[in-house]
Amino acid sequence: MKSKLTICFILICQSCLLFAQKASGIEEISQSLENYDTSFPFEKAYVHTDRKYYSAGEMVWFQAYLVDGKTLEPSGLSGSIMVDLYDSEHKLLAQRKVYSNGGFGNGDIKLPSDLKGGVYILKAYTNWMKNFDEAFMFEKKLVVMDGSWTPTQVNSSEVDVQFFPEGGHLVDNVKSRVAFKAIDISGRGISVSGKVFDESGNEIAEFKTEHDGMGTFSFVPEIGKKYSAKIEGSSTSFPLQTVEDRGFAIEVDNSNMNLLKLKLRSNEITNKAQNYSLIIHSKRQLIYALELKLTENENLITLPKIHFPNGISHITLFDSQSNVVLERLIFVDNPKGKITVSTDQETYEPRSKITAKIDVKESNGMPVEGLFSVSVLDLGQTLDRAPNQTIYSDLFLTSDLKGYIDNPMYYFDPNNEKAKAHLDLVMMSHGWTRFSWDEILQGLPEPEYQVEKGLSISGRLMNSSGKKPQAEGEITMISQTDNMELFNTTQTDEEGVFSFNNLRYSNTDNVILRGMGRKGDKYVKIVLDSTTNTPALSSAFKSRFETQEIKPEEITSYTEKSNFRKSYVVTYGFDSLMFRDLGSFTIEGKKRGETVSRLASSTYGLSNYVINFNDINIKTYINPLDALENRIPGFRTNIAGNSGSQDNLATFDGAGRMTNYITIRNPGGAEREGMGGTGNDNMPRLLLDDKLITYDQIVSMAPSMIDRVEAYYQETRNVTNTADLGWVLAFYSKEEGAKNMITKKLKNGYDKPREFYAPKYDVKEPVHSQPDRRVVLFWKPMLLIEDGEITFDYWNSDTDTEVMIDVQGLSMSGEPFHLVKSYKIEKK
After folding, report:
1. Cα–Cα distance for residue pair 617/634, rounded to 1 Å
2. Which of 56, 196, 449, 530 has the most C-beta neighbours closer than 10 Å?
C-alpha cells in the first residue's frame, strides 16, 4: 500500500529548521552538526585567471576569492591564500602567498620561458583547509601551448563502469533506480550501452548513457542473486552491489520548480515500528529536520523548496539509533541576483576606446555591493571561449563534490532543457559531500592545522656566543612595508623564545629585528626559526593532467600567433603582455593609507649630502637624527616627546607652538622649519630604505641600525599643485649589523602583485608607433562595486577580431556572479 505523507511544518528561527515532531534523535543529530560546524568552520577558495591557454614566458594574472563555506560570504577567517602551480608529474613549479583582504586578493605567476607544452593545474587553499580532504580544494587546468606538444590521445578500448543505487543500497524486492558512470582510461565520460544480467544469465535491464558517460535504469533486485552488467563491444563484466535483505531505497523527483518529492520504499521485513529521522542540510545549514513514521512499503514526502538555498543539499535518513539508512544529494538552482554587462557600442575601430558597464542587482532589484574581476581577450589569438569553470559553478557545485566534473557550466545553461536532468545525474554518481555523518556523530578530532590570520616571525634571543637563552629580553621588529604598522615590540619568555604574529609584509620587503637583553644588553644574538614557504601538498588531484579538446592544427595556429607576438618584443623592445611593479609606499599622516608611487629607479636626483654612519662614533648619539647635526649645514632638530598620534606626530606647548621639528638650510641659504610628521610639505620627507616613515619612528631607532643617510633637495608639488621646495632624508639600514640585529627579506612574506599594463591612446606617445597585438586587452582585479553598477574603460588593439569580456565576482552577501559579453573590432 502506498502512503502519502504531506508534511505540515512550522518555521522555527532563522535557520529554517523544521520539525514535524520534536524528537531526541533529531536533536542529537542536529546538535552534532552544529558542534562540528562550530569547531571546524570551512572555507572555499576560487581563482579567476585572465584565461586558460598560455604560451611559455607569459603572465598568468589572477584574482583569488576566499569565502565562508556555509554562507559563501567573503571570509575573514584566514588572512593568507596559497596559490600553487603543478605540472603533470605533480611537481610544484610556482607558489604564491596572497594576502586575503577580507576574502579577496590578487597576484600573478610568470611562466618560465622554457616551460614545456602541456596541462598544468592551479590549486588554491588556506592553511586551515589542509584539515580537510584535498579533493575539496580549488583546482583549475591551465594549458601551455607549444608546437612540439601533442595532447593526450586515448585510443584504448578499456572502459570502467561504476554503479550507484539511489540512496546507496539495493534492497530485496524494492524497486531501485540505479545511476551509472562510464569512463575511459583517462577518466573521461564516454557513451556506452549495455545490459544487466543475474548469475543465471537472465537479462534484467537495459541501460544507455544520457550525458557524459552517465545514465540510469531501474529494476527490482532479489536477495541471494548476484547482478552484473556488460556493455556492447566489451567482454568485461561489471558487478553491481550485493542485495540487502532489508532497508530503504529512495526515489527523488526534483523536476518541479517549487516542490521536492521523495519516495521512500522498503520491504515487509524492514522495521517500520521505529521512528526515523530525515535530515536535509545545505553546506551544514539545516533546512528540514523531520521525525517520520514510515509505516507503508512506499511513502511519499512532499517538501516546499522555498527554504532551500542555491546549491547542493544533502538528504539523510537515520534510524532510531542514529545510524545512516540512506543518503542522496540534490541540487536546487535558485539564484538570487542578476548581472548584465554592456558596452557603449557593438563594433569598434582599432585602437578605439571602449566604455563598459557592469550592473548587478539582487532578485528584489536592490543594488549589489561586491568585488569583481574582469578579463578582456582577443578571441582571434586564443582558444579561450566562455569559460566552462566559473566562480558560480565552483562555489555552488564542484567545490562540494570529490569527483571531477567536466565542463561544469554546462549544467547552468538556461537555454539547455536537459541541463537540470543531467545535473541530477551528477548528484547521483559523484559521491558524497564534505563530511561523513559517522565522523560527526563519533566526536570531534583536534585540528592539525591552525587558522593563519597573517604571517609569523619567531626565534630565540641568545647571548653573544649563542649558547644561553636570554629571558625577559626585548625584540623590536621594523617591517618596512606598505603596511602602516611598521614597528612591533615583544618580550622573550624564559627560554628566550619570541614570536610576532598576524603580520603583513611582502617577500621583497626588508624586515629588521633588533634584540636587547633584560638590562639593555646589546651583546646578544637573534636566532630565527625557519621562514621557508609552505611545502607542496600531496600528489592528490581530482583534475586530469590531460586534454582532448584541442586539435593539432589549433596548436599550430596558436603557436604561430604567439611567436608572431613575441617577434615584436625583439623588433621593438615592446611586450604586449608587459607589466609594471610600482613599488608603492604608504604615507602616514593626516590621510591614512595614502600611497605614492616611487620613481622606478628609486633615486631622487643627485644627493646634496651623504653621511656614512660607519665613520661616526655612534655611541655618543641617542637616535639617527642626533648624528646629523653639524654634518648637514643648518640641520637642527627638537625632540619634545612622542604624542602617540598617528595623524599628527608633532607636539605643542601651551601657546600652541610646535615643539617637535626639523630645520635644514636650503641651498639658497634660507632655513625651513617643519613639524614632526610626513603630512606637512615643510617637513623633510623621511625614508627608510626608500619607504616613508614618520618622525617618531626614526627617532625610536638606534644609530647602530643605520648604514648611511643621503640628503636630497628637490622641487616638489604640494596639494595645490604649486611649486614648493623640500628636503628628502633617505636613511639606509645596515645589511649586516651587529649580532643583536638582523636585516633580511623573509621568504614567507606575501607576494606583491604587479600592475597590469595596457596602453591608452587618447594622448599620443612615441611608444604608440609600435604595433599592438595584445591577446589580453584588459585585466582588472579587485574591482569594487558599491551601488550595483560600475563603468570601466580601456583601448582596443590593432587587430580585426572578436573580443570577449569575462566578468566574475562575489557580493558581500555571498552571491557569486558571472557573465561574458562579446563585441567586434573592425576597420572601416
Report:
1. 21
2. 196
**Rg for the chain (alpha carbons), in Å?**
33
The reported pLDDT for the residue numbered 735 is 57
Give residue-wise pLDDT tens across range 697-732.
888 788 888 888 988 876 554 434 444 557 888 888
- What is the per-residue pLDDT for 534? 73
Residue 316: phi and psi, rounded to 5, are -135, 135
Asked if 731 and 709 touch (Cβ cutoff 8 Å), the reply is yes
CA distances from 193 to 25, 210, 227, 232 (A): 44, 10, 17, 6
Residue 801: what residue type?
T
Is 552 strand, coil or helix? helix
Task: Give the DSSP letter of residue 605.
Answer: S
The pLDDT tens digits of the residues spanning 556-569 come to: 999 999 998 888 76
User: Which stretches within 166-302 are classed as H helix?
Assistant: none
Band of pLDDT at residue 766, cut at 50, 70 and 90? confident
Q: List, in sequence order, the alpha helices (H) in 703-827.
A: none
CA–CA gap between residue 448 and residue 392 (Å, rounded):
30
pLDDT band at 634 (very low <50, low <70, confident <90, very high): confident
Single pTM value for the model: 0.82
The 10s digit of each residue's pLDDT in 472-482 is 999 988 876 66
Q: Is 329 helix (H, G, I), strand (E, B) or coil?
A: strand
**What average pLDDT does the structure give for the chain?**
84
- Helices (runs of H) and strands (runs of E) counted in the chain: 6, 54
Residue 359: enclosing H or E segment and its boundaries?
Answer: strand 353-362
Could you give the 3-state DSSP secondary structure of residue 619?
helix
For residue 662, give the 3-state DSSP assignment. strand
- Among the listed ranges 264-268, 273-277, 584-588, which one has the minimum average pLDDT value? 584-588
Contact criterion met (CB below 8 Å) for 563 and 164? no
Instruction: Find out whether 659 and 696 touch, Cβ atoms under 8 Å.
Output: no
Q: What backbone phi and psi angles, to 5 degrees, belong to 194?
A: -170, -170
pLDDT tens-digit series, residues 268-292: 999 988 999 999 999 999 999 999 9
Q: Indicate the SS3 state at residue 441.
A: helix
Q: Name, in order, each residue with C-beta under 8 angstroms of 371's C-beta and a sequence gap of 6 or more.
A: 65, 74, 103, 104, 782, 783, 784, 785, 809, 810
**Can you tell me the mean pLDDT for 314-334?**
93
CA distance 291 to 299: 13
**Cell matching residue 35:** 558542534
Question: Is 206 in contact with 194 (CB distance < 8 Å)?
Answer: yes
Q: What are 460's three cell numbers?
A: 630565540
In whole angstroms, give the CA distance from residue 139 to residue 129.
14
Say if strands 741-745 and 510-516 run parallel, antiparallel, or are unpaired.
antiparallel
DSSP labels for 146-180? -TT----------EEEEEEETTS-EETT--EEEEE
DSSP state letters, 281-324 = EETTEEEEEEEE---SSEEEEEEESTTPPSEEEEEEEE-TT--E
Give yes or no for residue 172 having a pLDDT over 80.
yes
Measured CA to CA in angstroms, residue 22 lies from 227, 285, 299, 304, 413 at distances of 41, 18, 20, 20, 41
Q: For residue 101, which phi and psi values (nearest 5 degrees)?
A: -90, 85
Where is 436: in which H helix or E strand?
none
pLDDT for the residue 667: 62
Strand partners, 636: 663
Contacts of residue 1, Cβ cutoff 8 Å, sequence gap at least 6: 296, 297, 298
Return the beta strands (E) in 567-670 as ranges.
579-580, 585-587, 594-596, 609-612, 636-638, 661-665
